[in-house]
Structure prediction request, 575 residues.
Amino acid sequence: MKPEAVTRMRWFAGALLLAGLAAPVLHAWAQPSDETGAVATKKKKEPYRRSKLTRSESEGTADRRDILLTIGEDYTVDLDFEPQWDNIVIGNPTVVGHTNVKPKKQLILKPLKDGETTIQIRDPEGNLKLVLDLSVTKSNLVRRAREIRDLLREVEGVKVRVVGQRIEVTGEVLTSEDFSQVLTVLKDKAYAEYIIPKVRLSPIALELLARRIQEEVNKFAPKVTTRVVNKVILVEGVVDAQDKVTLVEKTVNLYAPNVLPGVPPSLGGDTGVRTRPADQIPWVDIRVTVDMGGPPPGSAPAVPEAPPPPAEPQQVRITVHFVELSKDYSKIFGFKWQPGFTADPQITVGTGAGGSAAAGGASFTGTISSLFPKLRSASFAGFARVLKTVTVVTLDGSQASVSQDTTIPLIALGVGGVPTNLPPQKVTFALRILPKITEGTDSIRLDVDPFTQSAVVGKTTTGAAITSSSTIQTRFYMNMGESAAIAAFSTTDIGTDFNKDDPRAQTAGSSAPAAGADPSQPAAQIEPLFTLLSSKAYRKKKSQVVVFITPEHIKNPSSDTEDLKKNFRVRVNTK
Prediction:
């Protein structure tokens, strides 16, 4: 590098260094100064400054503790420093007294009367080290709060805590029964003076309660409605008789929180006129009026109106479930040994075929059968469930009829294994039911005429069908939307057989062609020499049939049978 370039670089670096050193001096020279010539700077706010001449640093840096005391119960505070025992300051000596235990550095507090006060304790240097904020009550609020939690442990959504000299109980409960239990506990004399009650029914519970009240009232007063406004259930509408107004009030009282005896009337007790209190206990405001439908006094007689057309009958959807369960189990064990000869064995001694003397000795001719013993052991088990569901829609008072026939062909094996057709067997499912809705209620009467269910359960040895048939005829009442088991059949078959021959095995006296014999000649009879037989067969079969029925009120068969149509999507072109 050239000397001139090195020199210029040195001058440039020196200028930068001088500029950095001169910047703070110039900045301080540009700031205004006070009378002493010092540079004026913005003062930082002190954290404990409360005014120009006062601070709260001692209160801010001192350790603070809240203690809840009960009259008659002393409380000991252990100190981790050596205090000035002669300089313990009590704000209100009439509320709390104290005793010093200097060797243990303990302070024993003695509550004197209910109230609040503070105790300030300083160290040997005179610095404020500890401030005790004391609250004295007549009763042990912590124990009372624990007792209330134990009494309300089964109620969800309720919180209990001690606030000052009171116990605050807050939350939202879901049922009127839970609300009644909470009120019963909070209004007990042992807790009432310490309680701040803030428990209410949840908005969901109020909506459900209003809906149930309207459903019950509409059974005799269809023009009455309910709604929730500002945590109050309003019951509004018009009835045609004063007796129905009284009936509305009695019906509403049935759904009111069932508060136990001893609760004041203003809180929903069992005496006096119930009203909605100011502590947000939900209640019902009834605004039902009477409209007799007649003209006002002094007016001209009204022209009689034509009678209204008869109401359309209601529609009912009826679902019948036919459930059949069957189980069977069998176990077989058998041992059989039955050797024998043909019925006509021959013995020949020294004669030939033409009656002449034979050259040889005696001979014996015969056939031995079943020479080896037979052993059989087997077990079988089965389980079946048959479910048939029938759904039908009909009008109130109109009989619905459903039937289904199934024909089962039967074939039997004849002589020589030739199949032979037997008369077919028909199994039938038939249902006839008449619904009748009870006016003003959710009850319905169902008349079930002979309900028949038949099925093929087996075959005979000749191939004929064995059928089982069940018939039900009954009448009963039930509620809409509920299911009921109206009939049940149960059958149990248990049996054990000992030392019985296997019917499928060859029995004594039967004939069988001998090896190499002429099939056109009759078979020889077999005579057993002896029989050894030991067998045991156990069987158990159980079946049960149950019929369930479910009635439902519907308004439109098209929209109220979507669950049936969802598996059969059929598109209809409306153009």
In short: The two ends are 97 Å apart (CA to CA). Helices lie at 3-30, 57-61, 141-151, 176-186, 203-217, 242-254, 562-565. The first strand starts at residue 63 and ends at 70. The chain has seven helices and 26 strands.
